[in-house]
Prior knowledge:
Layout: H1 4-15, H2 18-30, H3 36-50, H4 54-66, H5 85-89, H6 91-94, H7 101-110, H8 116-123, H9 127-139, E1 143-145, H10 147-159, E2 171-173, H11 177-187, E3 207-210, E4 213-216, H12 232-235, E5 247-251, E6 255-257, E7 260-272, E8 278-283, E9 289-292, E10 297-299, H13 301-304, H14 307-329, E11 337-338, E12 345-351, H15 353-366, E13 371-374, E14 377-380, E15 390-395, H16 398-405, H17 407-496
Antiparallel strand pairs: 1-2, 3-10, 3-12, 4-9, 4-11, 5-7, 6-7, 7-8, 7-9, 12-15, 13-14, 14-15
Amino acid sequence: MFDSKTKRRKFELLCSTNVFCLSILFHRLVGQSNKGFTHNQCRLKRMLHNATTADELDFRVRSLDNSPATPPKSSVSCMNGINDATGDATWWGMSAKPSDKVWVVYYLLTERAMIASRIAEELGLNRSTVSRHIKKLDKEQYIKRSHSFESHNKRIEATSNKSVTGYSKAYVKGPRSAEADIQVRRVANQEGVRAEPTLPGGAKPMIDIHRVDLNLPALDNGLPTSVHMQMDSWKRVEHPEKLIRGWAHVKGEPVETSVGPWNVYFRRKGEYLEDGSIKWGEFCLPNPVRITLPERWWISPDECLDEDSVYQKLNAGIFEVSTAIQKKYGFKLGLPKQKTSQLFEAGALRYDPELAKQVKDYRTSSGKGMMPIADGITADGSHDLLKDGFVHLDCETPLQAAMQTHPTKVLDHLLKEGMESMEQMRKVAEETVVTIEEQAVKSSDSIQNNFENHMATMVERMMNSFNEQFENHLQRFFDRQNQRAERIMREFQDRLQGVDPALPETQTDLFRFAPENEWPDDDM
C-alpha cells in the first residue's frame, strides 16, 4: 500500500530526533483535558498511518505543528488579526505542577471570574479537587465570599427581566491576596486579557440607568377641572402632612411602563386651617406634574452600543407615563422638561480593590461621596459594595458605561462603525471619481467643440475681415489713382487752355493745335 520512501519517512519520524518534536506537539494537543487524551492520540496515530506519500506526511506534520492548541472559536468580531489572549494565558495553568494547581484555581476565580465546575472542566480536574482548593484558599484568607454582591445580583434579577447570574457563590480577593498574586506570577509565564468580562461568581456586568427626574408642563387650560377632581384616581392620591413655603408634592399612584414603575407627584398650593388640616388650592404652573424613575433600569452592555435605542426606549416609557397621567387625572400635558442638563446617568459596577481603596481614601479626605476619575465619569460606593472591592462608576452616556464593563466589545463596535464609515467614504470617493471622470470627458468634449467652433468663427472672421480690408484697399488705391489721373488732366488742360501756337511746316506731332478746317492736309 505504501511505497518504500513513505515507509522510510515514517520510520525516520518515529525513530529520529523528530520524535522529540512530535512528543512536544502531542503534549500540546492533549494538554486540554484528560478526556481529550485518547482522541488526540488517535488523531496523531491516524495522521501517521493514513498518509500515503512522504510529501503528504510532511504536509500533515507541518499543519499539525502550525495548528492552534485550542480549537478556534467562532466570532463575528471584525478584529480578525487579534486573537483572544485568554486561551493562551491558561496554558501555564495546564502545565503547572499538582502542588501549584491551587494558585491556578485562585487565578481563575479572581481574574477570570469562573465557577468551580468551569474550572474543573478547564483544568481537567475533579470537582472535589477544585472544591478542596477553594476551601483551602478561603480558609487561609486568600479569597473571601462576597455575600453583599450575591444579594445585589438577586436584587437585579428581582427588578429586571434579564438573568445576570445563575450562580450562588461569588469569590473576591481576600486579605492575603497579595501573597497569592506573587505565587501566581511565579507559576505563570504570561497573563491573559479577559475578552469576556465577568464579575465574581460568573455574573455578567449590567448597566443601570438612574436619576431620571422630569417635569411635565401643562398646556393652556390643561389643568383638571372640578369634574376631573371627582374621579376615583384623585381619591387615591397621598397628601402630605406638611407644607414647604406653602407648597407640597401630592403623590399619585405609580405608573407601570416598559422601563419600570414611575413615581408621580403633583405640585399644589396649600393653606393650614385652624384645626391643623390643610386646604388644598391651585396647582403650580407651568410644571404641575413631576415624574421620577425610582428603581434602576437595567440594560446590558450590548444594548448600550446603540445609544439611540436606549433613548428611544426611555422616551417611550416617558410617553407611556404622560399618557396615563392625562387619562387618569385629567391633565393636558406638553413635552417633558429635564430638571438638569443630563436626562439620566448610566452606572457600571467594576471589581477593582485598588480603586475601591482610593475611593475610600478620597471620601475620607475630601468629605465628598463621588471621586472624579475621568471626563464625565465618577466613582462612588453605591450598592454598599465598596468594602468588598466593588466600585460603582457613574457615566454621562451609556457608551461610556459599556466601555467600563466590556471594553473589547465597545472597541470592536467602534471599529466596525469606523470600517463602515470608511466603506461608505470609499463608495462616495469611487462615485465621486466616476462623476469627475464623466464630467472631465464631457468637459473635454465640450472644450474641443467650443475650440473648434471658436477657431472656425475666428478664421471666418479673419477671412471676412481680410477680404473686406483688401477690397477697401483696392477701392482706395483705384480712387487715388483716378484722382491723380484727373488732377493731371486738369493741370494739363489748364496749362494748354487758350494756347494757339503756329504750326511749323515741319511739325510731326500727333496733336495739332489748330482748328480742324485749317489743317495743312485738308487742302491736299
